[in-house]
Amino acid sequence: MLQEEEVELMLEQGGIPISQLCNSSVNIDLLQCPICFNILWKPIACGQDRCFSSFCQYCIESWLNQKNAQSTFEEEEETFANESNCPKCKRLFIKTEIPLVKVLLSQIELKCVHSDCTQVIPYEEYENHIVNCKERKKQCRGCQQYILQNKLEEHESQCSQIPVECQKCHKRMPKCDLESKHDKYNCIENLFKIQDQQLENLYTQYLMCDDMVNYYEEKIARMMKGDLIILNEYNFFTIFTANYQFTTDNLYIARLVRNSYNHNKQKNDFLHFYVDYHFTTGLEGYEWKSRVIRLRGNLLIGVCSSQLSNSVDFIVNRLGEVKKKEENDNRYHIIRKVNFTFGEGDVIRFQILPFMQCLRITNETRHLTFCFNRNELQEMGDQYFSFFSLEYQGDALQFL
Ligand SMILES: [Zn+2]
Ligand SMILES: [Zn+2]
Ligand SMILES: [Zn+2]
Ligand SMILES: [Zn+2]
Ligand SMILES: [Zn+2]
Fold first, then answer.
1. Could you tell me if 11 and 131 are in contact, meaning their C-beta atoms sit under 8 angstroms apart?
2. Gap between the Cα atoms of 387 and 378, Å rounded
3. Residue 355 and residue 281: Cα distance in Å, rounded?
4. What pLDDT does 187 receive?
5. Average pLDDT, stretch 242-246?
6. The dihedral formed by the CA atoms of 198, 199, 201 and 205, expressed in degrees to the nearest 10
7. How close is the Cα of 167 to the center of ligand 5, in Å?
8. Which pairing describes strands 358-363 and 271-280: parallel, antiparallel, or unpaired?
9. Residue 365: which of 292, 285, 297, 302 has the closest Cα?
10. β-pairing, 229-230 with 286-294?
11. Distance 195 CA to ligand 5 centre (A)
């Protein structure tokens, strides 16, 4: 017979002690787990030929997991048994089931593990019997004693050690303490302790909020002054690599060296590149400037936001046309016309002012300003990137 703790462990992990075997015409050596040396419990076998060793499910799984955990620490050690190898044959463990083992197991009979139970049970019914056996004892949540499982409910309802909660202060304690020791002073003291703890938490939160307020106030003050992070380490990204030439030795020039004529549309396509890729609408603002070096075709200045395959773009062109391209659309549609234009030699300033939810484009040479409005940026979510699209061969922008 096993101790109740051992029974619980066996139910969890498996491996029936050989001593439980009752009568067997079967050679038990075949049914023993090579890890725990008990009778196989929910057997799993190694599928490598000439091995076919069976293990308890729990034993082999924990063996493999343990090897896994070790191998991450002992990378250098040339372990002959690496993470998923069979403990017997040392080859890769390929999980399989062996019908013969099951047949043999089904022929054995076992004594019940619970003391006071005299039943002999066929292997296949063993787990079910042990779990439901009327002699099975379970631990009381209060006094920790093992009580017959069908008496446990009754016992716990009367056990003086069972944990209960005070309805007023919600402190948990053994029932006997609540009845004898937990008087109203004790209860009030607990309530005060809880209140103190809550106050302390609130105060910590208050301090954190205070720090945040200071942080944002500082940021806002900087934003209001128009303090922006000025980008002058330009990075350009484009999928039209062959069509653009970027000079980055002090003079940051992006030049379209090969245009792309679209025969269907009977016009040039716009080829685009991105500057410093994408921005999140944090509190930092960004600005950069470019000079239009040459412009024979049109130039689109835009922002775009992509979510997976969908993207939303807005652009403004030299004619002051503000256009939008919807998700999965390949054409821009005009949404309004503004008094904004630019041409060769003009210096264009690009500002992202997240605090004001604004993307401002200024033609410094002609003193013209254009803003993509709040709604347009909101439509793009938190992340977007800016781009420039050129149309004609030789057209170029210089980044200042
Ligand atoms: Zn085992
Ligand atoms: Zn093996
Ligand atoms: Zn029993
Ligand atoms: Zn108890
Ligand atoms: Zn209380």
1. yes
2. 18
3. 8
4. 93
5. 90
6. 130
7. 6
8. unpaired
9. 292
10. parallel
11. 13
Q: What is the pLDDT of residues 37-65, one digit of tens each?
A: 999 998 999 999 888 899 999 999 988 88
Separation of CA 166 and ligand 5 centre (Å): 5
User: Counting ligands in written order, which one lies closest to the CA of residue 111?
Assistant: 3
- Structural element, H or E, at residue 308: none
Please provide the average confidence, as pLDDT, over all residues in the chain: 85
Q: Which ligand is nearest to the CA of 43?
A: 1
**2 alpha carbon – ligand 4 mean position (Å):** 21
Please name which ligand lies nearest the alpha carbon of 13: 1
172 versus 222: the higher-pLDDT residue is 172
| Dihedral sign computed on CA atoms, order 90, 95, 99, 101 | positive
How remote is the CA of residue 165 from the centroid of ligand 4, in Å? 16
Retrieve residue 44's tokens: 């799993």
Pull the structure tokens for residue 364. Answer: 């410094």
Q: 299-307 and 358-363 as β-strands: parallel, antiparallel, unpaired?
A: unpaired
| Ligand found nearest the CA of 172 | 5
Ligand 4 geometric centre to CA of 172 (Å): 16
- Cα of 156 vs centre of ligand 3, distance in Å, is 23
The rounded percent of the chain whose pLDDT value lies above 70 is 90
| Residue 199 φ then ψ, to 5° | -60, -45
Tracing tokens 């350009």 back to the chain, one arrives at 236
From the CA of 126, the nearest ligand is: 3
Q: Would you state the pLDDT for residue 77?
A: 46
Q: Is 89 helix (H, G, I), strand (E, B) or coil?
A: coil
CA of 144 to the centre of ligand 3 (A): 22
Q: What is the pLDDT of residues 299-325, one digit of tens each?
A: 999 888 876 556 788 899 999 999 998
Tokens 């005299």 belong to 118
Closest-lying ligand to the alpha carbon of 163? 4
